[in-house]
Amino acid sequence: FVRLAPAMLTDPELGRSSPAINPSKVLLPEPEAPTIASASPEATVNEISCKMLRLVSPLGTSLHKSATSIATLVSIPPVFSVMLKSLIVALLMFVSATAGSVEAASKVILVYGDSLSAGYGIRVEQSWPSLLGDRLKEDTRVGAGGTPSWTVANASISGETTAGGRSRLEVALRQFKPKVVVLALGANDGLRGLPVKQMQDNLISMVKLAKASGARVLLIGMRLPPNYGPEYTNAFEAAFTTTARLEKVALLPFLLEPVAGQRSNFQADGLHPISAAQTKLLDHIYPALQPLLK
Fold first, then answer.
1. Which residues does residue 270 pair with via DSSP β-bridges, in sequence order?
2. Strand 143-144 vs strand 216-220: parallel, antiparallel, or unpaired?
3. Residues 265/271/275/278 CA torsion (nearest 10 deg)
4. What is the rounded distance in angstroms from the CA atom of residue 129 to the CA atom of residue 49?
5. What band does 54 get if pLDDT is binned at 50, 70 and 90?
6. In this predicted model, which residue has the larger pLDDT, 89 or 285?
């Protein structure tokens, strides 16, 4: 083994480096984010109560904070801290009990449909489910002492099929706990030419779920234009009749019956009723719904 070494040592062209004679002082900027709270953990109160509500379709899901109290206390004797916590807990319990009593005093009608019930192309407050809520407030026959005993929750979604409705109904029933379910799905199944047997099975499954939850059901049917052929259109219409008969629920055969004969009742797409036609739809639906509200 032979070790090779250079014949001479040379310095770099820029010269040698050497440590600084006087060390530099480096100032770091203050952090932009909040630092850890310096208050004692026992002196910090953070009580947040939240409630998830599924709103009207095309409405989305929103998070409503029913009560929020955030306080940071510094150098407070433990006895006062405990008293403050107890007071906040008591207030939250009172608010929750009050809200629960209000909800209990009002029974829910769940409207469960597609774009025809979701107010497609018009303002939500113009849709027939919203108008239903207004009518229930005015109808003393379904109220008690001038106080409305029914409220409307519209969980309709534009473009929904019976398969999609079936997949989310159980959650909606748990969320809204309705006493009455207005089931108005099937139009999109027909327009897409989906198998009628599949649609009927979905309708029956949804009716069973609603009944098992303790709700009464109003099933609203649909009809298709004749260009789908007599065999398909007849089977499609019969699926609603068969479902209502097998499950022994109320049936309104055709949602659009009072407006279907006049083109001026529809938007430019020829499928969705205009705002002025929504009252006609409600006048058509309300007599079939009223017996379920007794």
1. none
2. unpaired
3. 80
4. 29
5. very low
6. 285
